[in-house]
Amino acid sequence: MDDKDRGAPPDLAPPKGTTDLLPPESWRVSRLARLAMDTFAGAGYGPVDTPIFEHTEIFERGVGATSEVVGKQMYTFTDRGGRSLTLRPELTAPVVRAVLAANLQRGPLPVKLAYAGPMFRQERPQKGRYRQFYQVGIEAMGSALPAVDAEVIEIGSRFLASAGVETTLLLNSIGHVDSSCRTGYLKLLVEYLEEQRDRLAPVDAERVHTNPLRVFDSKEEATRAALEGAPYITDHLCDDCAKHFESVRALLEDLGVGYELEPRLVRGLDYYTRTAFEFVDAGGQQGKAARLGSQNAFGGGGRYDGLAESLGGDALPGIGFALGLDRILIGAGGGPDDDVAGGPVNAYVVAIGAAAARPALSLATRLRASGLGVDLDLMGRSVKGQMKDAARSGARWAVILGDAEIASGESTLRDLTSGAESRVALEDLAGLLAP
Ligand code: AMP
């Protein structure tokens, strides 16, 4: 192709609402994802990885066509075979689909799975709200017992604490779809909203009959004011749902997990039943009402006992959560280990003189093969330049190789923190450098 056929060069900035994750920020993200997956694995949650895109109907039927995510935010496209596909906006529906597809619901229960990865929603980008964002989460499927609710919530709460954010756990029960409580309550709620219709923001007035619970999620001032006297689902739970909720609360108290009851918490996705919860920023100055539906949620989750059936599968009760890594990182701020490059490099091999370059590469390779994190110069730098690069790399040690060292089968080991130096035999290095 001629230059003139190529047109204008492409825009190198990533698409709106997305970012390129590069060091040191990318170290923080991958460390946090690893901490999450390790925490989840410690409670028996194995990793699950589903495709980045799914058949659109998985979200339409799983998340619900009247939800904001499905109605307004999905990246949906038609592929060359004419199929409608969607970049995943959330992972609960895909995970339940994958479990049903592999018939795991017929094996040992509960099925406990954990994930970390990117999700996609076409939202208006702002701080803490992106079009590609990262979530970690778990799903426990196959048990309707309140013990699972307590286990799941405790794991989320413990992970957030170890990630360095201070959170308040908001807890609610929204009843069971099939039970008398949800049906009876929705009737009352619709009646109330009808009475208040003139005070509701237009977008919420439209929801009164399609998705009345979601009106509680509204960010509109007018709607919030109109909801002041609304009936709460928790006052209308049927005996079974009330008992379940009481047990969850008692178990959380056993586990030392603090919570605040929040009867207006309904969560954004349609599939929730019974327990709903959200972890919000405890450091924020906002009042209680402003917490809901706003950007200070690190994540949340709930029970979804009817989801598997709405995907056409066997009945399979489940509960899980999704937490947003981007927001956790904003909330946690920079930790002390973010001051340095933050990589896992422990040693930097410095070559003095051109003759040392080849042995330096061999030495670095041997040390890497023994499991150490090792870097070295690949730019032909001077010794001074290499020492600077060693400091930039975040390594604790400089392993210095010159003619004298090579001749005696040794290296000079410099502690880059204290500046102390000693001669060390090459075969002893790996043992000494192990962190
Ligand atoms: P949701 O699936 O909507 O309940 O979201 C769970 C969590 O994922 C939220 O509390 C956020 O931390 C995070 N999250 C959701 N949407 C976005 C977004 N557009 N940008 C960044 N984080 C998000």
Question: What is this structure's SSE topology?
Answer:
Blueprint: H1 25-41, E1 46-47, E2 53-55, H2 56-64, H3 68-73, E3 76-78, E4 84-87, H4 92-101, E5 111-120, E6 132-141, H5 146-162, E7 167-173, H6 180-196, H7 202-205, H8 207-210, H9 221-226, H10 239-254, E8 260-261, E9 273-281, H11 288-291, E10 297-303, H12 307-310, E11 318-324, H13 325-332, E12 347-351, H14 357-369, E13 374-376, H15 383-393, E14 397-401, H16 403-408, E15 410-415, E16 421-425, H17 426-433
Parallel strand pairs: 1-5, 7-8, 12-13, 12-14
Antiparallel strand pairs: 2-4, 3-4, 5-6, 6-11, 7-9, 9-10, 10-11, 14-15, 15-16
The chain binds adenosine monophosphate.
Q: How much helicity do the residues have?
A: 25-40%
**Measured on Cα atoms, how large is the radius of gyration?**
27 Å
Under CATH, the topology of the largest domain is which?
A: BirA Bifunctional Protein, domain 2
Q: How many strands in all?
A: 16
Main β-sheet, spatial strand arrangement: 1-5-6-11-10-9-7-8
- Give the tally of structural domains: 2
Q: Give the name of the CATH architecture of the largest domain.
A: 2-Layer Sandwich
Mean pLDDT across every amino acid position: 91
Question: What overall geometry do the principal axes of the alpha carbons give?
Answer: elongated
What ligands are attached or bound here? adenosine monophosphate
Helix tally? Answer: 17
Give the uncertain stretches in residue-range form: 287-293, 336-341
In terms of DSSP E residues, the strand content is 15-25%
Distance between the termini: 53 Å
> What is the CATH superfamily of the largest domain?
Bira Bifunctional Protein, Domain 2
